[in-house]
Amino acid sequence: MSQNPPNLRPDLAPRARFDEAPRPGQPTIGMVSLGCPKALVDSERILTRLRAEGYQISPDYAGADAVIVNTCGFLDSAKAESLDAIGEALVENGKVIVTGCLGAEPDYIREHHPNILAVTGPHQYEQVLDSVHKAVPPSPDPFVDLLPASGVKLTPRHYSYLKISEGCNHKCKFCIIPDMRGKLASRPAHAVMREAEKLVDAGVKELLVISQDTSAYGVDIKHAEDRGHRAHITDLARDLGSLGAWVRLHYVYPYPHVRNLIPLMAEGLILPYLDIPFQHAHPDTLKRMARPAAAAKTLDEIAAWRADCPDITLRSTFIVGYPGETEEEFETLLDWLDEAQLDRVGCFQYENVDGARSNDLPDHVPTEVKQERWDRFMEKAQAISEAKLQAKVGKTLEVIVDDIDEDGIATCRTWADAPEIDGNLFIDEGTEGLSVGDIAKVEVDEAGEYDLWGVLKGQ
User: TRAM domain: from which residue to which, for each copy (predicted)?
Assistant: First the structure.
């Protein structure tokens, strides 16, 4: 059985899935969704509107009347990937509409691809729809084109991303996301809950809460309360936990009030899982990043979280080779990782990004040094992961079933595993009674570096 590689990009969303056949004569729009889960939610909103207007959605370019490419601008490598996808869509289809984060740089896109039909920035839904209408006029059939109550979802039916805010108030020097997506703009809590209730009613078993800064949710609207729901992450987590689905929190900055979430995890209201972008551990590096330099206090917080909820899983991402990073600073990061013992870790080698203030910092780290540090970092992270997974052998864990292949092998995830970016638990036999989306109890009988294997309890 293959195992997850140690270099999974944590900014990538799961692959979009489509499972409907078009009716005769139905106008069809292809969709290529790149980037993070937040972009995937934007794609879902666009496609829900198009589906309501009678368009069929295609997973590829062939047979589509036009193609929307939702781009990523997170790193220069992501920009290059987006440009390649646009170019491929132009070759294969010819009618291409570009949206998403890279769409905030229309001149840059048109410089490389002048023949695209239109460019819009992130979450500019109306402009995307206008561009589609011009390229491919709608032709709805109200007796046939029925829209699912939960809208068009690009993830499997048993889990869904739930975006609670846009934008970010941080000014990290390496990041241009706030320039593209703006300042923090929280959704009203009652609107988030209404969407979550519809998703659960439609069969969603796991809600993945996302934003640029989940723990800052509601700050911009002064934690407004409306229709019985308060716009604060602790209140929202408690409300979401009442729906009976798994609730997983992503992109949580370690503000002091995050400790108030831990009792909710210990009670089983939300999953004992925190995805926190620490980025580094040395105070000087964090200062150059323009991030809070409190690595020692963070270790104290981690210890307190684990004291209150021993089963908590901690996931984070880091940057190695940041401008000015010395060998001493990097070794401090390795020592911190040894002490923190994080369960899930992703790592980037620093890249310049057009518009980022970090580009102008002195003492950029040579490429070969960045690679060498990345290798050392991932070697340590892999050893920690392997030891933590080995400690789960013999335990019974609750899992959600993501896939069952033609040989009957089930790919599942435990509470500790987010889709696509974390590990899996595989069941090799006795899966005849399982279906995708089921939640089952499994006894772990084998562990690897990133994945587990087990048998259904009672088999």
Answer: 390-458
pLDDT tens digits along 10-64 = 455 555 554 555 556 788 998 888 878 878 888 888 888 888 788 888 877 777 9
CATH 3.30.750.210 domain range(s) in the chain? 155-259+267-277
Spans of the chain, pLDDT less than 50:
1-10, 18, 142-147, 149
101 is in an annotated binding site: yes
Report the CATH fold assignment for 28-135. Rossmann fold (3.40.50)
| Main-chain phi, psi angles of 438, to 5 degrees | -70, 150
**Cα torsion 380, 386, 391, 392: sign:** positive
Asked if CATH classification 1.10.10.400 holds for the domain at 281-390, the reply, yes or no, is no
Residue 219 bridge partners (DSSP): none
In degrees, rounded to 5, the angle at the alpha carbon of residue 185 between the alpha carbons of residues 182 and 190 is 160
Domain(s) labelled CATH 3.30.750.200 in the chain stretch across: 281-390
Predicted pLDDT of residue 13: 53
Whether residue 347 is annotated as binding a ligand: the answer is: no
Dihedral of alpha carbons 218, 219, 221, 226, sign: positive
Nearest 5°: the CA angle 218, 269, 431 is: 125
Q: Which of 337, 272, 344, 342 is nearest to 310 (CA)?
A: 272
Architecture of the domain delimited by 396-456:
Beta Barrel (2.40)
CB 226 within 8 A of CB 189: yes
CATH class of 155-259+267-277: alpha beta
> Is 309 part of any known ligand binding site?
no
